[in-house]
Amino acid sequence: MFPASGYGGNLLIRLHHLFLPALTVALALSPFLIRNLRSSMIREMAADHVTAVRSRGLPERAIFRNHVFLNALISRRDAARRQHRMARRHYRGGGTGIHGSRLGRMIVGSIVARDYLVVQAIAMLMAIGILMAKFLFDIATVTIDRG
To answer: Would 2 be classed as within a structural domain?
Structure first.
């Protein structure tokens, strides 16, 4: 059974405690992403390059996998990125936050205490995290594009 709250000590216990909040956020985001992926795939099915590939006689499964689905995933990357940002905000402020709320309290406390080195360190860590997330999204896009 998964706990509804708490934090835990080591990594395995933390993941065990994180399962229900992560599942909640994922279930809340999935209808939006699925709906956007579906509309993107319908748009890709009507594209000229798909018609040209069909005229060459490729099987529908290969057309779907290599030309429709991968292109639809690439165009939905930005929607996933926006949803990821929204989920992070919800995760921090919606009562499920573990690190987000502690980090938020720490930065506010550091601002109040005028401990600018801590504020700068947290800002730098957050910037590095955002850059790493964008980098991973770009790597995923290139990987999907090369198929």
So the answer is: no
Over residues 69-108, the pLDDT tens digits come to 888 877 676 666 666 666 565 545 444 454 456 777 788 8
Identify whether 3 is part of a domain: no
Per residue in 113-140, pLDDT tens?
888 898 899 888 888 988 898 898 888 8
Count of residues in the chain: 147
Q: What is the CA radius of gyration of the chain?
A: 21
> Helices (H) and strands (E) in the chain — how many of each?
7, 0
Tell me if the pTM is above 0.85.
no
User: Residue holding tokens 């504020």?
Assistant: 119
Q: Look at residues 103, 77, 107 and name the one whose alpha carbon lies nearest to residue 92.
A: 103
Which residue range is the domain that position 62 belongs to? 11-146
The total domain count for the chain is 1
